[in-house]
Structure formats: C-alpha cells, structure tokens
Amino acid sequence: MTDFIITLTLTILTIVMVLNLGVMLLWVERKGSAILQDRIGANRAAIFGKLPFNLGIVNTMIADPIKLFTKEDFVPLGADKLLHTLAPVIGLLPLLVTFIVIPFGDILVIGGREIRLQAANLNVGILYVLAMVSLSVYGVVLGGWASNNRWSLLGGIRGAAQMISYEIPLGLSLIGIVLTFGSLDLQEIARAQGQLIGGWIPAWGIFYQPLAFLIFLAAGIAESKRIPFDLPEAESELISGYFTEYSGSKQSMFMLGDFIEAIIVAGLITTLFFGGWQVPFLLRDGFHFPWGGTLALPSLLVTLLQVGSFSIKVIFFCWLQIMIRWTLPRFRYDQLINLGWKILLPLSLFNVMATALVIILFE
Amino acid sequence: MDFVTFFALAIPLVIIAAMVIAHPSPIYSALFLVLTLFLLAVYFLFLDAHLVAALQIIVYAGAIMVLFLFVIMLLNLQSDPQRLHQQGLGRIAIIGGVVLVAELLLLLQRSSSGAADTPLPDKFGTVEALGTQLFTTYLLPFEVTGILLLVAVVGAVVLAKR
Predict the structure, then answer these.
(1) Nearest one of A9, A35, A236, A263 to A133, comparing CA atoms
(2) Of A166, A291, A350, B152, which alpha carbon lies 20 to 30 A from A18's?
(3) Are B107 and B113 in contact (CB under 8 A)?
C-alpha cells in the first residue's frame, strides 16, 4: 500500500512539474524573445505596479492562461465535431505521461526506506518514450483533418510527414547510446554515467556519442514542430497550419503540447547525454575529487544536489531550444525533408555502425 | 492474466475491431484500427511482454497507421459501400476470413492446454531475453525478414524513381 502511494505521488508530482515548466516556458518564450529582439515584450497585468520594470510573469503565467481558457470555443461549419474536440486531447495526453520514466534523482532515504526518484521504472524506458511521442502525431493529423479547412489539412499532412520522417533519425541516434551503456532502462543509463573516464572526465554520454547528440537535438526540435521546423504551422503560408480553426482552451492544449515536447527532449538529452541527475565527482556519501580530496555529505543533501543538478540541466536545454527557435529562420519544405532523409538518416546509420564496430573491436 | 482481466479487455477489443469494418467513414475505420492495435499492446503488457507491447505501439499504432491516415486524407476518401460489392471484394474477404479462422483453430488445437499454469522463465519478455532468442533460435527467420524488408525498400525506391 505504501509503495502504491509513493508511486502515485511520484507520478502526480512529475506530471505537475512538467505542466508547471510548460507554463514557465511560455513566459521564457515571450519575455526571452523580446529581450533577444530588443523589444519590451509582455508588460501588462502587473501586480507590483511600483517596480521600474515589469517581468511579465503575471501577464504570461496567469492572465494569458485565464484569457485562453475563457475564450469562445469555436467549431467551424462542416467540421467533424467529435474529432475536432478529441484531437488536442489525443495530442497532449501521451506527452503528459512520457516524463514519468525519466529519473530525476537516484534514491531518497527517508526513515530507512529507500525511494527511487523515478515514477515508473520500465525495462523498455527509451522505447516507451518513443512510443508515446509517436502517438502524439495523431493530434496534429486529426486536428488538421477535422477542421474542414484546406490550410489545416495541408498543415496536418505536413505534420504527419515531418514527424514520421524525423522519428527515424531520432530513434537511430539513441541506438548508439543504448549500445554504449548496454541498457534501455533510463535509470541504469543515468547510473552508468557516474563513472569517470581516465579518473577525471565524467563518463557522460556526450563524450561517447557527440554525433548522436547533435542528431538527437536536431530531430528532437523537429519532433516538437517549432522553428526552424515549424512547417506544419508556417504562419506565412498556412495561416496557423493544423490549428488554424482552433481557439480558446483547445488551441492552448496544442501550444502546451509543443512546450511539453520540448521539455521531454530536454529531459532525454539530460538523461542520455549529460549524466541525468549525476553531479561530477559526487557519489552516494559525498564528493570524491580526482586530486584525492573527499568531502563527506549527508545522504539527504546528496539527493537534493542530484535533483537540483537534473533540474538545472533540463531548464538549460529548454532555454537552449527556445533560443534556437528565436534565432533561426524557417526551412523550406524540401530542405526539411532533405535534411531528414539525406543528411540525418545516413549520419545516424553511420553512427550506429561506427559505435557497434568500436564496441566489438575494443571489448 | 486472470479470467476477469481477459474479458474486460477482450470484449471491448472485439467490439472495436468490428467497428473497423462496420463504420462507413474511412477515417473512423482507421482510428478504430489504431485503437485495436493499442488495446492489443495493453494485452501484451498484461502478458509480461513489455518489449512487444512497446514495439506494437511504435511500429503499428505510431507509424504505419499514421501513413494510412495520411493516404486517406490526401486522397480525401469518402465512404462508398457500393464499390466493395461491385468488384466482388466481399467474396474474397469471406474466403480470407475462413482461412484465418481455420488457421486459428489449428493453432488452438496444437497449443498445449497446460501452458498457462507453468511459471514464466526469469526475465521473460525483457529486451535481453527476446534479443537472445531472436539471434540464436530464430536467427534464420529474422534474417529472411530483414531481406524481405530490404526488397520492399528497393522496390519502393524503384517505383518512386519512375
């Protein structure tokens, strides 16, 4: 019974944290892009009106969601009402439950009981993430089809083609990591990155698989359908693409889904390439520096440091994706498909072969 | 899997599978097929075959069915129950169904009835166990399937280049 309550708490906690981070990213996106483009950005709805500047937190994180959820919910004439309503839910639901397999810490010891800081420990962790991400395509496809609008349909078709194309390099780039660490279990992969290469460098995935990291980052951004890969949306060509006919809370579900996908990509990059919750030189009982010094720390503090390390890394990669989104222009459609099939796919295949060869030759 | 779980899953599964052919709209048919495949994956989960469940969703529900939907949307297919009967496709479907049922009955007869009571071997259904089986006991069928897929890929490229 206690185990069940702990698992339930961890699951709810993970989902709530992901949702929170999603809304926070909305703020970073709007205010961050304003700073990047030398604008003022969101500056309405201030509570602390006396301040000389407005961070826009109230505006983007409270006022905007309230506005979106109280807007009129419009279904166009001749649209498939059921699918029009279901599409955003189908798109969001698989993404919400994806993060539960990503470990955010090692173990937390409370009163002699060891709690694994991972909501669901699956033997097929990486495959579960890929399965859930691949299911979210239906939201885009159905949203585009059910709107009874040519722009929406084009956006939906583009989205389907793009996401199917980029799932292949996404999955193949992870095979290199799986070969290196010999497991599909994300917690085991995170644990394996606690060792040191040559006594100094932490054994993070990026040092073994730099090419896979670049492929994964590119394909991951493409999966989240954001600039430079936002062809399904493409305001200048398709109005708003697959969610042209969406308004209010349904439209915000699509938007939130994109942010959550960015968080999932950041979480996977952290876990697979940047040591997950590992802090360099930090073991279960404290720091063991390579120059011989040790610093003993209580178990609770070690766990806190690990969770903090994981959170900082995830937030950093979310921020990086938003910076990329506001720095690059949009691809043309043929460039997008060429990049996926003629550059990323051969590169990821090469990476798998090279990794397998090295492992066979040196082990 | 106990009696109650089996039927709690099997009855909706059969109804949804029937809806695939019963629904007049091609889009809804495809969506019911997605739901069928998803429920099959849940079945595999209850049978401790986690890898098969994950692959079922990634390959069938997540990729192949999206391409089905893609084609239906691109051609803007409408429901047209007349054509099926005109071309005699209904008769072919009946023959196919009979063959399928015969195969299932044959399999049912061959399978030993006591298999459900024997405990599962250690690590059953994990990636390691399934991978070892694929690359030792079933190596030849595995490689043949690989060649078959390669032929399909080459064929698709040839057709696309025309």
Answers:
(1) A263
(2) A166
(3) no
Residues of chain A contacting B126 with CB distance shorter than 8 Å = 123
Predicted confidence (pLDDT) per residue in A22-33, tens digit: 888 888 888 888
**A135 with B50: Cβ contact below 8 A:** no
Q: Where are the alpha helices (DSSP H) in chain A?
A: 2-36, 57-58, 64-70, 81-96, 125-135, 137-146, 150-181, 186-192, 205-208, 210-223, 235-238, 248-273, 299-327, 333-338, 345-362
pLDDT of residue B119: 67
Is residue A42 within 8 A of residue A60, CB to CB? The reply is yes
Sign of CA pseudo-dihedral A244, A249, A254, A255: positive
**H or E element: which one contains A202?**
strand A201-202
Measured at the alpha carbon of residue B56, what is the angle toward residues B50 and B61, in degrees to the nearest 5?
135
Counted residue by residue, chain B has a size of 162
Residue to mutate among B29, B69, B132, B149, with most A CBs inside 10 A, is B69
Q: Which residues in A lie closer than 8 A to residue B50 (C-beta atoms)?
A: 122-124
Across A210-225, b (16+ Cβ under 10 Å) vs e yields eebbebbbbbbbbbbb
Q: What is the value of ipTM here, to two decimals?
A: 0.79
Per the CB < 8 A criterion, the answer to whether A229 and A331 are in contact is yes
Average pLDDT rounded to a whole number, residues A114-120? 77
**CA dihedral of residues B11, B17, B18, B24 (deg, nearest 10):** 140
Check residue A60 and report its DSSP letter.
I
A140 interfacial to chain B (CB closer than 8 Å): no
DSSP summary character for residue A328: S
What are the beta bridge partners of residue A109? A114
Residue with tokens 């109280």: A70
Q: Which residues of chain B have pLDDT under 70?
A: 1, 77-87, 112-120, 122
The number of beta carbons lying within 10 Å of the beta carbon of residue B145 is: 12
Chain B residue nearest residue A143, CA to CA: B73
Write the DSSP assignment of A292-313 as a string of letters: S-EEE--HHHHHHHHHHHHHHH
Using the Cβ of B74 and the Cβ atoms of chain A, whether some distance falls under 8 Å is answered with yes
Q: Give the residue on A whose Cα is nearest the Cα of B50.
A: A124
